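Cast an eye over my tokenised protein here and flag anything odd:

===
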Amino acid sequence: MKNTHVILLLILLLALCVSPVQAQSPQPVVHAVMFWMDGCSHCEEVIQNVLPPLQERYGAQFDLFMIEVKGTQDVDMLYRVAASYKIPKDKTGVPFLILGEQVLVGSDQVRDQLPALIDDYLIRGGLDFPTNPILADFLPTTSLASPTALGLSAAPQAVAAAETESALRDNGFTLAIVALIGMVAAILYALFTLLTGKLYIHAAWMDTVIPWVSLIGLAVAGYLTYVETQSVQAICGPVGDCNAVQSSSYARIWGILPVGLLGAFGYIAILAAWWSTRLRLNWTWVSIYAPVALFGMALFGTIFSIYLTYLELYVIKAVCIWCISSAVIITLLLLLSLDSTLRALTPEEELES
């Protein structure tokens, strides 16, 4: 009997020790969503400096699901999500973090407000992922009782993936830098030629290939216009990241006019100027002003391409192979138009070649 009592006592003690563990409520978890973009300095600030301390502090109690904005479709989804929270386009940017019905935009808001919000929701018993229907197909199904495997620890993985993809596209940056140097050199040569009246590069075929080069440029600009206006993914190939460039705010002038469409208008105007010189009209203004206008448009296009290439390299930090192609084409047109421009501005007997 004593042995039975001892066994029963041990079972009772074991039950008393185990029951609290089994009855203990799981730790509350706060789930959140953050949109981010590769090459965004504010996103890098959050991923590298804000999230790691939060991971150490909260562990599995803070579960952040990250959505990378890669192309125009992702940008459109971000705008729709922002609109559902009554945030206009001009106030929308990345990082864009959603915590329940609270939205934090920009690295400053995330850094300053996120820790306090996590503490507040943990005291309330946790927070599930946003119930926004636009995000329903992207978010994992979770409950407040258990964190998903895609928690805050997913942030370093996302950074590593972004770094790998960036390394594969670094060759685009080299190509863009070469194109940038070439455009600057072409403008300096063109200005030197006009100031001195000396044309060091000349061939009879140069003027005749202008319409063909312009048509190629028009095709490139037309494709970029299609990508920018129809919200489709661009075909980039292994060089650069066209979709990151096309989804940036710099893809439209004043947020309205697509850069590709402006380029298309420019190539059409260049074709019209070249064609007017072939009509053999006995109009002085055609023989003088049409070549000069063609040169002026090519010069403006080259300068504008320098500006866009600079943005790709140092602001957007992504390169578009189609944009580089257009930059090279407009620079070629600048050089090809020098002969006719010089002849229009200088008497024949004074020309040196």
The CA atoms of residues 29 and 320 lie 41 Å apart. The first helix runs from residue 2 to 23. The chain has two domains: 30-166, 169-350. The radius of gyration is 30 Å.
